[in-house]
UniProtKB/TrEMBL annotation:
The chain crosses the membrane at residues 29-52, 64-88, 150-169, 189-212, 309-327, 333-349. Its main location: membrane. This is Flippase-like domain-containing protein. The lineage of its organism: Bacteria, Pseudomonadati, Pseudomonadota, Alphaproteobacteria, Sphingomonadales. Signal peptide: none annotated. It comes from Erythrobacter insulae. Keywords: Cell membrane, Membrane, Transmembrane, Transmembrane helix. One of its GO terms (cellular component) is plasma membrane.
Amino acid sequence: MSEDAAPKAEAADDHPAVSHWRNMPRRTLTIALSILPIVALGNVAVLIYALGGINLSEKLKEPNLLGLVALLVFVPMIANSMRLALWARFLDLEFGFRKALKVITGTMVANSVTPSSTGGMPIKLLFLMGEGVDSRRSITLISFQAAEDTFITLAIVALCLGITGYAMFEFIGSDPLILARLDGTLRTASMIVLCVLLAIAAIAALIGAGVMGRRVREWTARLINRIKSHVAQIARDWASVFRQGKWLALINLGFSALQWLVRFSIAGLILLAFGVEWQPALFWLLQWLVQTISSIVPTPGGAGGAEAAFLLLFAPFVAIGVVVPAMSTWRLMHFYLPLVGAALTFFLLHRRDRARVKAAKDNEEIADPETGLPQPAE
């Protein structure tokens, strides 16, 4: 792809408050890169403790498959960046693959030290704005990718349910422990959503009644108008996709399918390396359930929840002597290895951008034609 040029931002996004939000990724990454080594060491210590002195060399039957896994874990990061860059080009944004990769890797690093239940979308929004994409188009890009991810994951889940004869429902219903934990998780998530909606409704009622004052009411009205303009812009962008971007949507759906099929295959390949017969449809379903559970765990990167969900769901299909070391290997390969790669990639891209900015500032001084002395550029 061509070299990125300076992005064009809307005048509305030159407001000081927006500039503050654009600087958030830098602060977030500073905190993330400081905390990440501590979090990673803590989780690695837990995983080593979980192994309990198990000799992996005795358990592994096909160690070469771990080399394949070590390469495949970076495919989702690259595919996701390609999708983001292609949609940005469709929207005529000066935002190439390098900047898309920077946004994706930065989001991965920041999301690893924040609770998974907060989601990666707000963090990605901040990184897009930090790269100069205006807030409306940032939301549009995120909505494009969210729609693709939802469609592909639901399609894969529906396909796997059909292949397995919908035995997953019988399996979950037959195990009281799994059913109770899933029920508790869903109840907790539902209560959180309900409390948030009630709080928003109560605040809106108070503002509408004028209890919080005229200034808050006027600020809320301006916010609502801004949201309406954002929604109108996003609707126009989606309409342009249906008019002109159908082929691009199909291409990006292909990248999304590749991304999720690889992610869902990691656990099965690791189990295959431990001598467990690979059952793609079943293991894809189990991996999807593990990811769903870990995504609502209020710990950094879903730590603890992902490991517990893996053990809980895979234990009925894998021998107990294999499931624990397989879980530890899966967590290291599926989460920490791409995270290390993302942190290194982001650091190198960030350093390159800083060097380019410094060089541009140095070139701002030009020579005065009369005196020959360097003068600041106007």
